Amino acid sequence: MEMVIGLTAVGVIALIAIVMIANSRVKLRDGRRLSDMNQLRQALLLFSERDSERGLLTMDCLKNMPVAVSSCTGSALAGLKDFMPGIQYLNDPLAKTICSAQLNQNLPGQACQPCNYSFVSAEDSGSYAVAFCLEKGTEDFSKGLHYLTENGLR
């Protein structure tokens, strides 16, 4: 009987540990996503200031949105690489599917299917937005689909 109680206690402790580790991984992935978006925002701002006459939307890869941020390559992206080396490796830590309206037809705060960081057309202007999904959310951002725009994260 004592052995059963002991094994049950060990099982309960192991289950709690597994749940805590899983939640920690989700929080770490969401933290990385927000960090990536803040770095990308800084790079895009610096790129826009330096190349204001051409603008970001002249990049060939943005003519076929939605498109993964990491797949934007070529001479247009070379200028952006000055401010964010390794941008060609900038991917969501979990997903490789491009974020699109068809993939995530929901509002911020609702669960979304994890998707790779993607340039999408901004709804409120002729500019860009970068779509990304938070699995669990943070204190400042709810779970769900969010966008990086010229005005920041929303």
Structure report:
With 154 residues, the chain is α+β, with helices and mostly antiparallel strands. Helices cover 36% and strands 17% of the residues. The protein has 2 helices and 5 strands, in the order H-E-H-E-E-E-E. The chain has helices spanning 2-50, 75-81; strands at 67-68, 118-121, 128-137, 142-149, 152-153. A 5-stranded antiparallel β-sheet has the order 1-2-3-4-5, with helices on one face. Strand 2 (118-121) and strand 3 (128-137) form a beta hairpin.
Can I get a quick summary?
This protein is α+β, with helices and mostly antiparallel strands. 36% of the residues lie in helices and 17% in strands.
Write the layout of secondary structure elements.
Blueprint lengths: L1 H49 L16 E2 L6 H7 L36 E4 L6 E10 L4 E8 L2 E2 L1
Antiparallel strand pairs: 1-2, 2-3, 3-4, 4-5
Spatial strand sequence of the major β-sheet: 1-2-3-4-5
The coarse silhouette is elongated
Mean pLDDT: 77
Question: What is the string of helix and strand elements?
Answer: HEHEEEE
- Measured by DSSP, the beta-strand proportion falls in 15-25%
Number of separate helices? 2
